[in-house]
Write a structure and sequence with these properties.
InterPro entries: MavL-like (IPR032063). The protein is of the alpha/beta class. It has 11 helices and 17 strands. The protein has 2 domains: 248 residues, no CATH class; 91 residues, no CATH class. Helix 7 crosses helix 8. It is globular.
Length: 405
């Protein structure tokens, strides 16, 4: 399977809807149910209709959550949570079109799967028997096995070693070792904090790194869209992952702090972004992110980027004269295992930001891999990076190849 084949699978094998602590699902073939058996997808214990041939495994959903889909769309109302698809009477009160970008936060609703594995620290999960504590284990393994033994393709791999290999992949991805529950002392290390569940611990650092991936993609994609349109972007940011998925009280602070750091880091590259507006957050200020704030940039045509932290409906008309010619970029909280709209497909139109966005835009079709097949597909994969901007996968590989010689 090629990379683009895998991306195609992540887009097309997701459920139609997938939500709630019980993982209520609707499949493309109209099967419905909830999730006790979902954890068996991809294993010997999987049962129809939850089989790897037709749906994503939890491990795949974890990767799928790192993807985003964006496009231009018309707007039919202001996008408020209760809009239910009713066209606005006075269209002068909204932007008529803009870019809509689905962003996916960290999901903690199911224990010991997806981001829970990396960010939540529990007595049951974070034990050696599950492959955790690799820092000390790897030191021991280096002494026990020679290089030839470790590389022998015929050698048998036991279950513990498979679990360790899985943890090794994500440790490398986040560039941090995971931890055993017994080794984590919250009061002695700011990396760790409280969870909403007093029996669990929360890895603030890994949460920050997970956010950083999404924020870089959002900023670079918004910059690219605005630059191509010859405008400045007005980015409407929602707190994806901060609603029912939130697992720690400090997550909103981590969200804003990380966004501030990534915004400042990428600032010289963001000369086509005019405003970043954080909507419906509990905080109205976090360090240099202020309501009515300004981040100075020597390279920016307007001297920098304005910031706001206050309530705003996604598709509200941009106020004139400062913002009326800007390109509105609307983010919405998507899901890694559902089509755009999620609860929209089971008529729960006010359940979350996902269905309300489907009701106020055209994303249920434009971002749908089963409808907009030539656009939302693995072959149209683009890579966002600080070094190269936003490039089609082929152009990205050509660029990397030319640099490496």
């Amino acid at each position: 399977m090629t990379l683009t084949d895998f991306i195609q699978r992540l887009l097309t094998k997701r459920c139609v809807s997938f939500f709630g602590g019980d993982d209520d699902y609707l499949l493309l073939d109209a099967h419905t149910g909830f999730g006790p058996n979902y954890k068996y997808v991809g294993s010997e214990d999987e049962t129809t209709p939850l089989v790897l041939k037709t749906v994503l495994s939890y491990d795949e959903v974890k990767i799928s959550a790192l993807l985003s889909v964006s496009s231009f769309s018309d707007f039919i109302n202001d996008g408020n949570r209760a809009n239910c698809g009713k066209p606005i009477g006075d269209a002068t009160k909204i932007e008529r079109e803009g870019v809509v970008l689905g962003m996916i936060g960290a999901r903690f609703e199911r224990r010991e799967v997806m981001e829970y594995q990396d960010i939540i620290i529990s007595q049951n999960q974070n034990v050696r028997e599950n492959g955790y504590g690799l820092k000390s284990i790897e030191m021991q393994n280096q002494k026990k096995k020679s290089l030839l033994e470790r590389l022998n393709p015929l050698r048998k791999i036991d279950q513990l070693e498979r679990l360790q290999d899985y943890r090794r992949i994500w440790n490398k991805f986040y560039e941090e070792y995971d931890n055993l529950y017994e080794d984590v002392v919250k009061d002695e290390n700011p990396r760790f904090g409280d969870s909403l569940n007093p029996l669990l611990k929360f890895d603030n650092l890994i949460m920050k790194k997970r956010y950083a991936i999404a924020f870089d993609m959002l900023l670079l994609e918004s910059e690219n869209r605005a630059k191509l349109a010859g405008k400045l972007a007005y980015i409407h940011v929602v707190g994806f992952g901060l609603g029912v998925w939130r697992a720690a009280a400090q997550q909103e602070k981590i969200f804003l702090e990380t966004f501030s750091q990534r915004l400042n880091k990428l600032l010289p590259l963001l000369n086509s972004i005019g405003v970043v507006h954080f909507a419906w957050f509990n905080l109205n200020e976090w360090k240099d992110l202020k309501n009515g704030g300004f981040l100075k940039s020597d390279t920016h045509p307007c001297g920098g980027i304005r910031t706001f932290l206050c309530k705003r409906n996604p598709n509200d008309k941009l106020e004139s004269p400062d913002y009326e010619n800007m390109l509105l970029v609307v983010t919405y909280a998507w899901d890694g295992n559902a089509l755009p709209g999620n609860e929209f497909w089971v008529r729960k139109l006010q359940a979350s930001n996902d269905p309300s966005t489907a009701c106020s835009t055209l994303i249920s079709e434009l971002h749908n891999p089963h409808i907009n097949t030539e656009y939302v597909c693995g072959n149209n994969l683009h890579i966002a990076s600080a070094d190269h901007g936003v490039l089609h996968i082929k152009d990205y590989l050509d660029r990397i190849s030319s640099i490496s010689g």
